[in-house]
Design goal:
Elements (H helix, E strand, L loop, with lengths): L1 E9 L5 E10 L4 E5 L6 H8 L7 E6 L2 E2 L8 H5 L2 E4 L11 H11 L4 H14 L15 H13 L5 E5 L7 H16 L3 E5 L3 H7 L2 E6 L2 E3 L14
Parallel strand pairs: 3-8, 3-9, 6-7, 7-8
Antiparallel strand pairs: 1-2, 1-4, 4-5, 9-10
Helix pairs in contact: 3-4, 3-5, 4-5
Length: 230
């Protein structure tokens, strides 16, 4: 599903966010990216979603080399990836239904199919019945679940999340991570960037540790998972 092959990323200001990193993530895995602030976690996710391109090396996502992908093919590439942000990025003046439907509307999906998928996505995150509610009328945890519903409404094979529990209390954080785990259980590949080691230990999935733009330890198949306590 995802291969980073000797990948480096240097920004225009000269800062090298990633330096010669290598790792694989397989179909259906749930993987945590951990490390201190500035370690390179967000840059990895941006490279996966083709919001950035590597300065050196190759990033392969679902068999496609993002470095070589032409600009006109990027929108179609991104339709297979769901992205969850820490700050939700919801449209404040649009109801829940419209926020979740946005990726489908952009892709010119038929209205009947949009309605079916939006309601299914809201049902998955426990928000069915709140289609006409505005985001500011929801709790912080509910807003994050709207963001997750929007990310999965297109039925992506890959779901990536950048510090999705950073603004949530411990109970809500567990609730959000359990949602991600349910998507993994049905075959979705899930990559979560987080500095919350309590959550990492709780869910016992494979961990890729970044430090100063480099992978620490073995990020390949032999990297052991932590043991979950459930």
């Amino acid at each position: 599903m995802i291969v980073f092959d000797r990948v480096s990323k240097r920004y225009g200001n000269g800062r090298e966010a990633l330096s010669n990193i290598n790792f694989n993530i397989h179909n259906g895995e749930m993987v945590f990216l951990t490390g201190r602030s500035g370690a390179g976690k967000s840059t990895v996710l941006k490279l996966i979603a083709l919001l950035e391109r590597p300065s050196r090396g190759n990033v392969l996502v679902n068999g496609k080399n993002t470095h070589a992908l032409k600009a006109r093919h990027i929108p179609a590439f991104r339709r297979h990836i769901g992205v969850v942000f820490q700050d939700h990025k919801l449209l404040a003046d649009r109801p829940v239904y419209d926020n979740v439907a946005l990726p489908l509307a952009v892709a010119a999906t038929p209205l009947k199919e949009i309605d079916k998928r939006v309601r299914a996505a809201l049902d998955q995150v426990g928000l069915l019945g709140k289609e006409r509610v505005l985001p500011q009328e929801l709790s912080v945890g509910e807003q994050q679940r709207v963001g997750i519903a929007r990310a999965v409404v297109s039925k992506p094979a890959l779901l990536i999340a950048d510090e999705p529990t950073g603004n949530l209390d411990p109970d809500l954080s567990l609730e959000v991570m359990r949602l991600f785990r349910r998507f993994q259980d049905v075959g979705v590949t899930v990559v979560v960037a987080t500095h919350d080691m309590h959550l990492v230990r709780e869910f016992g999935q494979r961990v890729i540790v970044l430090e100063n733009g480099q992978v620490q330890g073995d990020a390949g198949d032999s990297l052991p998972s932590l043991v979950a306590t459930r």
